[in-house]
Amino acid sequence: MGDLAGLIAKRLGLGLVTLLVVSVLIFFAVELLPGDIAQAVLGQGATEETVAAMREQLGLDRPAPVRYFEWLAGAVTGDFGTSLVSGERVSSAIGTRFINTLFLAAYAAVIAVPISILLGIVVALLRNSLFDRVANVMTLTSISSPEFFLGYILILYLAVKTGMFPALANLRADMTFVELLHRTFLPALTLVLVVTAHMMRMTRAAIINLLASPYIEMARLKGTPPWKVIVRHALPNAWAPIINVVALNLAYLITGVVLVEVVFVYPGIGQLLVDAVAKRDFPIVQACCLIFAATFILLNLTADVGAILTNPRLRHPK
Amino acid sequence: MKKKFTDKDVLLKIRGLKIDGYSDETWIPIIKGVDLTLHRGEVMGLIGESGAGKSTIGAAAMGYARDGTRISEGSIEFDGMELTTASEGERRALRGSRIAYVAQSAAASFNPAHKIIDQHTEAPVHYRIQKRMEAQEDAMELYERLRLPNPQEIGFRYPHQVSGGQLQRAMTAMAMSCRPDLIIFDEPTTALDVTTQIEVLAAIRDIVDQFNTAAIYITHDLAVVAQMADTIKVLLKGEEVEEAPTKEMLDNPREDYTKSLWAVRSFKRDQKSRPTDGTQPVISVQNIDAAYTGGVKVLDDVSFDIYPGMTVAVVGESGSGKSTTARVITGLLPPTEGQVLFKGDPLPPRYQDRNRDQLRQAQMIYQMADTALNPKVQINEIIGRPAQFYSGLRGQALKQRVDELLDLIELEPARFYNRYPPELSGGQKQRIGIARALAAEPDFIICDEVTSALDQLVAEGILKLLDRLQRELGLAYMFITHDLATVRSIADEVVVMQHGKVVEQGPKDEMFKPPHHPYTDLLLSSVPEMDPDWLTTLLEERGGVDNIGDAADV
Q: Which of A225, A228, A312 lies closest to B113 in CB terms?
């Protein structure tokens, strides 16, 4: 087991290094944006003195590397500075929004992951049948449609015409959990439709890819029924690619949902980011980007570790 | 071997079996009307070259058509039940319970994700023959009968934690789990070393005897089939050549094709000895130690010389360091100690530091011509590239050189110049591999198991070609192999390796004469012979099989 722990520690270390590199990129990319922050905040009418005073107040007159390390030191302790626009602490501005985003992502994932893997197994079992083709066409259609379009279609049929679900997902603090689920169902469903195809097709491909293996033929020649061949003999060896694609989609659910949040007016972190970019509220932009990057890296790390753990050769060394 | 079979004992009756294979978008016949009758307790050997349809017939005996094949005609009657018309469910119910299968590579045929014993108990539990715990106990008993070490414990390991020979026995045990009437053995020992092969052969023979199980034993190794089978059926390109009881078949083959199979092992060329006029060895390996990154030492103080125009066979089991030595010579793996001399001058340890002239001297021919040739590159380019790189030939001169090389390997240039490797047969591909090595105009070529993936007739052709090239071009060969029959036919000197060390070396005639190093002795005596009583006699001589190859099993 020593090898395994070492392997995981190595991945963790690599993840941290990646995150560090990304933080440099984020900081200096924002730095490179055209225009002056103080100028942007104060507007066109500001005199040179007020701009200079503002720059000093924000610490912008000091060299970039110094500010980078200050920012990094703050970020490590959870302090991302204060918003330039509202003067609010960035961490508190992001906090609840990020939790909302995580909730929506989890909601969608809890529905989408089991469904896509199950569907993937079924279409692998019934490969090249009518069911296989229909499932493929439908999921492909849903992944090919833009998500805002899907969102509006769902609003039209499930909210406006039938009134089963609310069209807008504005949240209140005093809602019960069931109410919350009901209210956020449409954005969650939109996300499910977007991510299912990818995971289902990967599950199908990963399983079918293994069906030519000698041990699958062996299982068939032992009289194992087809569904058992797939579930017991192919699936356990197909986890690595499946876990990877699931992680990729989970990351998307957290970082790529801006459009869905806008359509359903959902108070998530994506909307916050878009607003902040428009208002040049750079501390918030940097913090959001860093959180997104960390999410991506963390999920990919989990996928790597998961793939290692499902490999019996690594789990049970000689 | 002296069993008598009567008509009422017939277990499997195949009549006029035709099977089609799907290729190039049409169905082409691959089995063209084969009859087969197998009695209870009878072991039938199916032999023939690859492509003869042995495995396809084996699968058909289970009512199973592999992906891309279909049974188009004929009848397969198993114990009174017609399999070609039975439903898929009925056929499936026979598999594992009454007809079982043992595959060529146990390492690939055990599911890496489950413990061995869980795969063993799958069929008996599925068919409700035994409860899981009973099936496990039965598995342990079978493991014991098949002389697996630690029978109580070995099943609870994963396939990758067990050696190849042990896995093959575990797979035979698995086939026995439901005490089937018939087992199909599909080349079960082909992937094993000779020392390991013996234990598996002995184990299979015993257990088939004990339970009076009928078996179809598929192999291309005549000496192996001679030990195992009551009857032998010879196949060629999907048709039967002849069938006879083993003894009769070995003594008096009727058909010319069968005779030619028997004759293969007779190729032998005269042994040469080292030059005495003070010529330097073309390659001299001196006190080499080597290890893979972070790993343990895989070569330990390896030394041998190869003189111009001679063939040095390096033999040993898998893992003994034969191929690693080749990697050191070619510079792919720099040694940690020692050096390699070329005609007296040391070669830089890393190939990156060698100049063109030094690189040209160490050419390789690989075991798997399939994977050693880029399938998307035309033959003229495969051979032409090294010719261009080493000799700077271009245009017409290059084309002429490629033609010359193709002539040299006995492939007609006009026919092969523009073709791609997948269009070629196994033997032709291996010839292209040889031509590619020759294109560099080396003095020395490493042949890494070049014939072990080929059928005997084809392998014979390759050996003859290599021999002719050696005479015409004065090449020296380092011939890596585990097949001692090949060593007998072409080697001048032999180097025996075990666990990364050279245990014995010398001229071939001395090496094949006692007294031997005990390991050489073990290797030599493990090579199956055509005599059907060879295995029995050998086992008696060794007194019990318990630990024969366990040296090899570590």
A: A312
Residues B190, B56, single domain; the answer is yes
Q: How far apart are CA B76 and CA B73, in angstroms?
A: 10
User: Which of B109, B110, B117, B120 should we substitute to test contact with A (largest number of A Cβ atoms within 10 Å)?
Assistant: B109
Number of domains in chain B: 2
Structure tokens that stand for A243 in this block: 């876990």
ipTM of the complex: 0.76
Tell whether A233 lies on the interface with B, counting CB pairs under 8 A.
yes
The A residues from 295 to 314 touching B (CB cutoff 8 Å) are: 312-313
Domain that holds residue B336: 283-542
Q: Check whether residue B196 and residue B318 sit in a common domain.
A: no
Interface A:B, Cβ pairs < 8 A: 75
Same-domain check for residues B334 and B237: no
Of the partner residues A212, A218, A223, the one whose CB lies closest to the CB of residue B97: A223
Domain with residue B445: its CATH number is: 3.40.50.300
* For residues B304-325, average pLDDT: 87
Select the residue of A212, A223, A313 nearest B95 (Cβ to Cβ). Answer: A223
Pairing of strands B363-365, B444-448: parallel
Same domain (yes/no): B339, B255: no
Q: For B284-287, which contacts have Cβ atoms below 8 Å and span 24 or more sequence positions?
A: B284/B340, B284/B341, B284/B342, B284/B344, B285/B325, B285/B328, B285/B329, B285/B338, B285/B340, B286/B338, B286/B339, B286/B340, B286/B341, B287/B337, B287/B338, B287/B339
Q: Is residue B548 part of a domain?
A: no
Contacts of A281 (CB under 8 A, 6+ apart): A83, A84, A85, A275
**B437 occurs within a structural domain:** yes
Q: Which two tokens stand for residue A231?
A: 């579930």
* B 149-188 → A contacts, CB under 8 A: 157-158, 160-161, 174
Which of A233, A313, A316 is closest, CB to CB, to B111? Answer: A233
The residue among B450, B43, B444, B409 whose CA lies nearest residue B225 is B43
A117-126, A277-286, B505-514, B536-545, range with greatest mean pLDDT = A117-126
| Residue B157, in any domain of the structure | yes
Residue B203 shares a structural domain with residue B343: no
Q: Per-residue pLDDT tens for B335-346?
A: 888 899 888 888
Separation between Cα atoms, residue B17 and residue B426, nearest integer Å: 27
Of B95, B126, B158, nearest to A221 by CB-CB distance is B95
CATH tag, A97-280: 1.10.3720.10
In chain A, which segments carry CATH 1.10.3720.10? 97-280
In this prediction the pTM is 0.76
B18 to chain A nearest CA, in Å?
A: 21
Do residues B338 and B286 touch, judged by C-beta distance below 8 A?
Answer: yes
**What's the DSSP call for residue B22?**
E
Q: Closest Cα to residue B457, out of B234, B304, B183, B273?
A: B234
On whether residue B32 sits in a domain, the answer given is yes
Contacting residues for B63 by C-beta, under 8 A, at least 6 apart: B76, B78, B83, B84, B86, B91, B94, B95
Nearest CA in chain B to A236: B113
Q: Which residue of B has its CA nearest to A215?
A: B109
- Same-domain status, B238 and B156: yes
Place of tokens 């049970």: A316
Query: Residue type at B331?
Result: G
- Model confidence at B196, in pLDDT bands (50, 70, 90)? confident
B545 pLDDT tier (thresholds 50, 70, 90):
very low
Please give the pLDDT value at position B548: 47
Q: Do B126 and A218 touch (CB under 8 A)?
A: no
Q: Is B64 on the interface with A (CB under 8 A)?
A: yes
* Number of neighbouring beta carbons within 10 Å of residue B547: 12
- Domain match, B44 and B79 both: yes
Alpha-carbon gap: A218 to the closest alpha carbon of chain B (Å): 6
